[in-house]
Amino acid sequence: MRRFEVVLVSCGLVGLVACGSDAPRSALPYDPNSTAVIGGDYDNPDGLTLRVRETPDGDECIDLDGACIRPQEACGDSGAADVLLDDSGNVVDVICYPTSGVAIETLKGDVDHVGNNVVLVFDDEDDGADVTGDVTIDGNNVTLYGNGPDKSVIGGDLNIDKNNAVVRGVRIEGDVTITKNNPSIVDCVIEGDLTIRGNNVSIALCDVWGKLVIEGNNTVLVNNRFATAPEVHGNNTVCASNVTFVDADDDGLVSEDELGDTVECAGKSKDK
Fold it and tell me: What is the pLDDT of residues 9-63, one digit of tens each?
């Protein structure tokens, strides 16, 4: 799976002084002019579930087999975005990554506190858990950006207790609990349970090994793999291209021959 290149910034530990309230675009851990399109039944010449394109400006669009996608309407011209599509190619969410007005901090060791408007960056070393304990996102507009689940690891639980959080490219060895609104988690492995109590939550390109319980409304699930079918108690859940899996050889990995049935949400089944 293709991921954005990560550029590390040495700014001290979380909870200490950050790099400033308006970090340069070159210091961001993602390309500020890239859009990843996730989902949809489109021919992709790269053979990837994740299609990365340059973010258009003005009235221009990303053309996918005639469908016109304009992430800049939500994220601004030349912004950074993930666009989630359902199986018919309809846009079900646009996730924006901040390109200005944020502090950038490296994330290593224990996390005591996270402020508002912060981009937290994992290192790019494959050296075990980057955070040995739990992480609680207790600030608004926080982006937690990793280098993929094989490298960026939270050793405990992840709790999202404020609004507008984005988590990308991370493995969580414990549980994930979302209590607030408008968060997104993309490209992840959750070894424990995922409990969604907040509204307008989007999950894409994730493997969830524990239970998935959805109590909030307007949850969007795109291109995920679940060990168990979700328990859906909220309204307006969107499911697209999600499947179950069984780790038959008990190796802790999900292979293509271990994928199972299409996941049903809110009584609505989608094709793989």
Answer: 223 223 322 333 445 556 899 999 999 999 987 655 554 566 888 999 999 999 8
Nearest-angstrom CA–CA distance, 41 and 20? 42
Residue-level pLDDT at 239: 94
CB 80 within 8 A of CB 32: yes
Closest among 48, 12, 254, 39 to 149, alpha carbons compared: 254
The strand pair at 184-190 and 202-208 is best described as parallel
**For residues 154 and 14, what is the distance between their CA atoms, to the nearest angstrom?**
14
Q: How far apart are CA 142 and CA 104, in angstroms?
A: 10
Residue linked to tokens 């087999």? 65
pTM metric for this prediction: 0.86
- The tokens for 22 are 């308006």
Measured between alpha carbons, how far is 201 from 225 in angstroms, rounded to an integer? Answer: 17
What does DSSP say about strands 225-226 and 166-172: parallel, antiparallel, or unpaired?
Answer: unpaired
Which pLDDT does position 44 carry in this prediction? 55
Q: For the residues of 169-181, what is the DSSP string, one character each?
A: EEEESS-EEE-SS
Q: Record the tokens describing residue 176, joined without a space.
A: 């994930």
Listed range (7-16, 233-242, 262-271) with the worst mean pLDDT: 7-16
DSSP label at residue 69: E
Cα(37)–Cα(84) distance, rounded to whole angstroms? 6
Helix, coil or strand: residue 12: coil
C-beta neighbour count of 252 within 10 angstroms: 9
DSSP lists the bridge partners of residue 200 as none
